[in-house]
Write a structure and sequence with these properties.
- It contains five helices and six strands, in the order E-H-H-E-H-E-E-H-E-E-H.
- The chain is of the alpha/beta class.
- The two termini are 19 Å apart.
- The relative contact order is 0.17.
């Protein structure tokens, strides 16, 4: 097994518990359509590496947000660990202290505990680990997006100053450009996830976020796959294979 983890946090559309939601099912469905990283669990699928996937929607619990709202910039928009507002700012859910504690314990904490265990096991066995943070993004900025620059690229590479080596970014960027796609670094989204136990402590844990523009593979209005889906999947899986074989970010 390669010392690589595919982290896929936003592909699910499932809301396990609708407690606190004040908008109807039709409105919830609209938010799910808009905010889900559709099909990323299939686009980024691979063999011989570890896969961690959230089986609940990000609008229910977003495992990529800081649990502490004082550290999470999106909490100001009502989109912290537990989303309370829609993309256009309307109140979507009321979250009591009790509900927040329950969801954090049953979903957020369990996800991160599993994440940390996988990383630790890889480090114990291999001494190094590469996390690929797998996402997609809409071609037009969301209302709550901090970066509203247009046009948006085909791909975005997200980095962390401590956990993402330059040669890893260069390798990915070169492959994307050589295949005829456009790419930007930390634009329109920045960063890449690392378990809090390793964050800013161990740079043998490398992490890079790869985001694919949804226009390449789906109809964003309906959620349906388009003709470009197969080619997009083939390209992404080719990129993963290159990272599996070179492991450039893990070289000493």
């Amino acid at each position: 097994m390669k010392p690589i983890i595919l982290n896929i946090p936003h592909s699910s559309a499932l809301i396990p518990d609708k407690t606190g939601f004040i908008i109807d099912d039709a409105e919830i469905k609209k938010e799910i359509l808009k905010l889900t990283d559709w099909y990323t669990d299939d686009l980024f699928s691979a063999e011989d590496i570890h896969i961690l996937k959230a089986d609940f929607s990000r609008i229910f619990c977003d495992v990529e947000r800081f649990a502490d709202d004082s550290r999470e910039i999106m909490s100001k928009s009502g989109m912290g660990m537990l989303y309370e507002r829609t993309d256009d700012g309307r109140l979507m859910r009321t979250v009591s202290t009790k509900l927040r504690k329950k969801i954090k314990m049953d979903f957020y904490d369990k996800y991160h505990q599993k994440f940390n265990i996988i990383v630790k096991e890889i480090l114990d066995e291999k001494g190094k680990c590469l996390i690929i943070d797998c996402h997609s993004f809409p071609d037009s900025p969301l209302k709550r997006d901090l970066n509203k620059e247009k046009p948006r690229p085909d791909f975005c590479i997200g980095t962390d100053k401590f956990h993402t080596r330059d040669e890893l970014v260069e390798k990915i960027e070169e492959f994307i450009k050589s295949s005829g796609y456009s790419v930007k670094i930390d634009n329109p989204y920045t960063g890449s996830i690392v378990p809090i136990e390793q964050y800013q402590k161990n740079n043998n844990v490398q992490s890079v976020m790869i985001e694919v523009n949804r226009k390449l593979y789906m109809n964003e209005s309906t959620g349906e796959k388009i003709k470009g889906y197969k080619n997009t999947k083939k390209f992404i899986q080719s990129l993963i294979e290159i990272l599996k074989e070179t492991e450039i970010s893990l070289d000493s």
